[in-house]
Design goal:
homotetramer, alpha+beta
Chain lengths: 394, 394, 394, 394
């Protein structure tokens, strides 16, 4: 028997070819695909989302909430669907959402927007590279026109230039509406680069992506300059709420936060938050986001202090949240339903979804932040105990 | 109607309470959950994996392969299940696997193993902190005994100590068998810390997790010291294979790699690889791994050179791969089937799975690395074109 | 006897008070200051440069060169004075300068200029912070007028804004002529901030320096955005020159450079260059620069490759070179003479000096880069041997 | 006239050849070296410290103090010689030393010691590299014997191994007594590497220095693992002392410190301290240290908090202080006198000097930290004003 995966050039999403692949895999490997082959949607809707389709992962979804958001786009209470196989995760986020509700909700603000491609333009010398950086600035309008000729949605906002050695690293920064925009900006930037290549003869060559977009990984440039959207979520938690729900004082929280910040700095960590990606990965899977974008979304900073009234100010800035409410996997069967659960499917909804996501992250930070600090009085550690009670440690 | 999510204290995984939650959510939000409510497994199996369960995300799974691995644990050809909604992803990995096959397979090596908790021990002065670090070293045997009293699997290998200010940041490094081990090590370290706390009176207090474990985010300490497993995957690609399959020369690949490395260094990026998390997130979701661990797995380094015969040596080191074949979500319905597809379910299989994962990552790096470099001859860019042809750009 | 250092409120630079301090120190400590008290300049010229003056450090100066520079500002051969107590340093730089001469000189280019202060503006909420960042952009002209009212030389070029949490980190970027400009920009930014403070009532407070200028230490923002001047120095070294002078092939140099770059990236090092600060510290001390600025000047990147003819392209980008030819210590007795040795004293000379400095750095990189790689044929290591022969190891 | 720098193979430190070089330089450049040629020491003492000697930099030295140190090695009051041309620097450190005195002195602790060379060992594959790392661990005793055969002072304490790709980055960590030890460890490591090379046939080659020692630049590995000595200096400043001497409250200091720490973290800065290198560069020049080591010494962390009594705890950890009291430039004329001023010349004094240095750094941090925060009451900024009054801004 051939070891080649069956494939149909006519229609690779028909029931027949999918079934053929299932049988092939079962025969090749001896595994059974009893559950994996069970899905409720029309497989032809997967054309454009998944090649060599043979089944589905059934990832359980739980719900946390309601989450009270005082955003500019998300306003009111939301039920947040979280697809996860990690016990205690939803319970923990749910507890944090209670803190938020009892504090009067959480304020969310989109502070920046930029999806980018980062071509590198290479020259014979550094002097030529510097001169190009000046030319590029002077010719921005034409470059923008070229880039935007490829898309009705994407807008080229600016081009950052960094001159190193005999090349110029750039970031072509776009707004991309309700799409995540990685492909849209790839195409637009490619057309712009080809135009540049034709109009700047000294250019030796360019690389459309030099890894300076730092896609799907944390970086200094992403944090400083935004990737996707930059969102800040913040609230002031009354002392009594913190103590009654999380059994910790504002001073204990703030003290632990400083040690944690110092430790993150020393460790060379890309984030001083505890675990934004737990909630984000679960939300991304549930709502048809690109789960790999958790790679860049993990980057974040947390800042807290005890205010003059003795309450706790808490905020997180997420500089690289990449999410969409249109395109990609957002229209698929269960994914769309989960977006609709939050009123976030389709055009004009991306900012709303981003605010809910950032608010969700804070719920997780509050809950875990409190749990990991030692409870002197009881001699027990809530964090360990939660995993004993709810999780797979049993 | 109350806005409180329905919950049963008796059995929160019965069909009734799940149905009640579905109705509650539909009524509260106006959304329909027609697909989300359809799953093929017994919901009671989700106890310990997902609270407030109300349905599933159906994430399409395609297959790439066969992937020819010359590992110490994985040997032979494997079909790799990838759960993704990103068009072109599987096609791209599949192309990379062809390169690997035609090059005679890929060598994989587990180079390190360490799952950790990172308590911080705080003192009155830095001098006391320094003295404690010496005491901790001298009393390792007893600390180890305490930690290991909680687990039959986990072994405390060593404790790293970093003296800063008036505290000591530590990393308690364990091997954890076929489990990922975050909870196992949390519990073991907690017991060890309580013993330390009782036996070292000068200790003011400790934090069980000071963020120095840098869980689910990249960091210098993870890269230098391993988190989960450290895996290197490497191969030499004959010039003619590279040219025929990827239409690029070794020199072009190596040149582009250097610009990419420099750009990553300048950008303060946590990785100079292109996109390990694309393949890893898809594999993690398919096989019941904690998808949030993509946060730390994104960290990696790529190294290439053209050897004396004109072939391309390519290697990746992934210092923080956290994966399991036992516990967590690995035993769930579709997840277990996908593990079994690779012969990777259950005890004694973790190293095999890790080798397959690292090899998969290389397939994606080769394919995208070649595609993002400009094809001078045709004047077209493969990367952009692929998204036009296969993806959602259409 | 009082332990208080003698001080004169009338004139703290008279011979009498200096002598009194010398005697005080000798009596208090039992040390003799026979050499330290010997200087050839009028001590009153030190007013504004050194409080509590009691003598001088006599730091030996050697010379390396001639250094052949093909700059935009420095053109021709230069003799470079290096004040150092490190044996082999000058011999090593001198050897590198021979390589440069035999390669036809080195091309230097000033690619950027920005001395900055970095006030942080703090608000009640992140939403207010975001709104302020927009206001600041809209009101740049007035802020610029305020800042420039304090100086005839400094020009405010732009203000970078980074919105985090409830504050905005900014960098006020200036050109500062032939002065280094730290104080000039401090005063100008202070006046601008006071104006902002009066005109933006929602501002809670600001910090004139939030450490975001990262003065005297390497940082991502300095590298990306320039501090002082950004200079690239580059040359192509013919294969035969490299082999005859440094006894190494282009391929060996480039290979070693890649390992070194990877090692620097992995180590979390601020630079992949070998030792720019050796030459810079010696040049800074000789010419009256602020020696502490070595702290930021150490940051740099090196890029090399073997070109199609088999020669070695080598370049360094120094993004944070802070140097002056006017003000500070440049006018002092020996310091001015050393500047004049290179035709670099006074107004209009800063760019020339910066180009010579960057070219000097390359001389050191070439020499040490070749020496640290193992000489297989002889079984000896040049680097170790040099210290045996010339240095204090004897 | 030849452009070649005059040099004598017999004795390059005689009065004649030095005079010949002076004349050569004056003729070539038109500069006068009236002051530069004046030095009080015997030039032959410069053999081993400075090639191509032609004069001296006369760097003014002022004194700050007394500095009250409660160290393990430095105990009592010290007068600290600072060679600088930066106005206000000494006045600022002097003010900080007053705060320290009035607080009862400063506690200093040497928390680590490690001077290193960092050879990279390269293999055919990553699997071979991993195996070598195990062999190296098993054969440490023999490697140590080889290394220590070259020195009566240096001791090889341990070897860190980091397996990446097909090589192993190592750090050979030594104690080096009262010498800085860069050359001593270079020679010892070279001999050890040659032994390894002879005894491990699979080794393809090694690089004695792969830049993983990160000499003279900040890095994650230096901070985590120490370079030279790791010193913590700390004190608790009574509220009334802080307010009377620095006119700031503990709460203002701590608040500003947190913003500064966050800003440093965001900026990707190697240090959250304000300016350790100002004092260190001045002290290094005065006492014959390698001034370029400021490059690595700039790395540091500051931690503060307001304690329960309302006083301010302040500490700094300097993980990479490289200083000597023996060898290098420490025995030269003025340099030795300045060491003797602090009772720090010669053998057995290095730890004492390091403690004084770290304590000096804190004086500067306190003074500048207070000055840069805005004085709301007076509407003036002390930091700007100080430069107006004492510095070159006049």
């Amino acid at each position: 028997m051939s070891n080649k995966i069956p494939r149909s050039n006519d229609n690779d999403y028909s029931a027949e070819i999918i079934s053929e692949r299932q049988q092939f895999l079962e025969q090749q490997t001896g595994a059974s695909l009893d559950h994996t082959r069970k899905f409720s949607f029309d497989p032809e809707t997967m054309d454009g989302n998944c090649e060599h389709l043979f089944g589905v992962a059934q990832v359980p979804i739980g719900v946390a909430g309601p989450l009270l958001v005082n955003g500019e786009h998300a306003q009111g209470e939301f039920y947040v669907p979280l697809a996860t196989i990690e016990g205690t995760l939803i319970a923990s986020y749910n507890r944090g959402m209670r803190v938020i509700r009892e504090s009067g909700g959480i304020t969310t603000t989109i502070c920046g927007e930029a999806m980018q491609r980062a071509p590198a333009f290479v020259f014979r010398t550094g002097r030529e590279a510097r001169d190009f950086s000046l030319w590029l600035k002077a010719n921005f309008a034409e470059v923008k026109a070229q880039a935007e000729s490829t898309t009705s949605v994407g807008k080229l906002v600016d081009i950052e230039s960094y001159v190193y050695h005999n090349w110029v690293n750039t970031r072509f920064n776009y707004t991309t509406g309700d799409a995540a925009g990685q492909n849209m900006t790839g195409r637009a930037t490619y057309v712009a680069c080809e135009w540049i290549s034709s109009n700047y003869p000294q250019l030796r060559h360019y690389m459309l992506s030099s890894n300076f977009d730092t896609e799907k990984k944390p970086s200094a440039v992403n944090s400083l300059g935004t990737r996707g959207r930059r969102v800040t979520a913040e609230l002031t938690i009354p002392r009594e709420v913190l103590q009654s729900v999380l059994r910790i004082t504002p001073e204990q929280m703030a003290y632990g936060q400083t040690i944690s910040l110092m430790s993150s700095y020393i460790a060379g960590s890309s984030s001083n938050a505890a675990h934004p990606v737990n909630g984000l990965a679960a939300l991304y899977i549930a709502t048809g986001q690109d789960a790999a974008c958790v790679g860049e979304a993990t980057q974040s900073t947390v800042y807290t202090y005890v205010d003059r009234r003795g309450d706790l100010y808490f905020s997180i800035t997420l500089p690289a949240l990449v999410m969409a409410t249109y395109g990609g996997g957002t229209g698929l069967a269960t994914q769309r339903e989960c977006l609709e659960l939050m009123g976030c499917y389709g055009k004009g909804k991306a900012h709303k979804l981003l605010e809910i996501a950032a608010a969700t992250v804070v719920a997780g930070e509050l809950s875990l932040g409190a749990a990991t600090r030692r409870d002197k009085d009881t001699g027990k550690n809530e964090w360990v105990d939660a995993h004993e009670t709810l999780g797979r440690n049993r």
